[in-house]
Design a protein that fits this description.
Keywords: Signal
Strand content: 25-35%
Radius of gyration: 16 Å
Helix content: 40-55%
Largest sheet: 4 strands, antiparallel
Strand order of the largest sheet: 3-4-5-6
Signal peptide: 1-20
C-alpha cells in the first residue's frame, strides 16, 4: 500500500505536505483580511448562519504568479455562491468575484 502512495505522490496525484501547508496558510491569510469592519472569515460565517447556507469549503487554484482562493456556499440544490480572492506574489489580497466584493462592501 505504501508503494502505491509513494508512486501517486511522485506522479503528482497527491499534493506534497509543503503545498498543503502553503494552501492552509493562504486560507488563513484570506480569512484574517479586513472586510467591512470585521474579517473575511467572520463575514462568511455570518453569511452562512444568517441565511442557512451550507458551507462547501475552500478551494485553491494555483497559477504561476498568484493563487485564487474560493469559498463556496450552497444556496439551494441548483445554486452556489462563490466568493473568490486573489493572493499575488507580493502577498497582497484582493477580492476577485462580485460576491466577494459585495461581502466586504457593506457592513453587517
Amino acid at each position: 500500500m505504501s508503494r502505491i502512495l509513494i508512486a501517486l505522490f511522485w506522479l503528482g496525484l497527491i499534493p506534497s505536505p509543503a503545498a498543503v501547508a502553503d494552501e492552509a496558510a493562504d486560507v488563513a491569510k484570506v480569512e484574517a483580511a479586513a472586510c467591512a469592519g470585521a474579517t473575511v472569515g467572520q463575514r462568511l460565517q455570518e453569511e452562512i448562519q444568517s441565511h442557512s447556507r451550507r458551507d462547501l469549503g475552500w478551494r485553491v487554484f494555483a497559477e504561476a504568479d498568484h493563487r485564487d482562493l474560493e469559498r463556496s456556499l450552497r444556496i439551494s440544490k441548483a445554486m452556489e455562491a462563490r466568493y473568490r480572492w486573489r493572493i499575488d506574489a507580493a502577498g497582497n489580497i484582493e477580492p476577485v468575484s462580485d460576491a466577494a466584493r459585495q461581502l466586504c462592501a457593506t457592513p453587517p
